[in-house]
Design brief:
Length: 172
Amino acid sequence: MQKVKNFRVHNIGMDRIENLTQSYTQAPWRKQLRIIGLFFVGLVLIALVAGIYLTVSARAAVVGRDIQRLQEDLEEVEMQIEDLKSGLAVVGSISMLKERATAQGFVPVTVEQIVYLSIPGYAARQPVILATSSERHVVSAQVMPAKYTESLIEWLKRVVINTYFSISGILP
């Protein structure tokens, strides 16, 4: 009898599982719901990727516009610098300096009016020589011995021929 009871308990558990699987497989709306759910998950993933792509593209466009604006600003500042340099060159030209000096009452000096002072202990600056000396330096190339210029094949031929002739007793 014990076996019969165990069989019924086991059988009842199997019946429940069969009923569950049967009811699950008999509900087509569940399959449709699963397909619809997977479709919407895929749609959300595509929308998420598209949103990320649009965000990155928008940021790249903004950064590109900022770079263009900064390059235009840089060009404008460089033009201002060049204008200032040319103005400085005009003000520092010899004709302008002479004109300003005469307007302030300066007159050119003659050689007789120039006085050189000698200061004890003053060491004058040594002139900087930028040009190289006129001496020509000849670079000598080292010549390699002949034994370092022979190839592996030439060496093998020489060694094999010498070995062959020395074994056979014939001198080359």
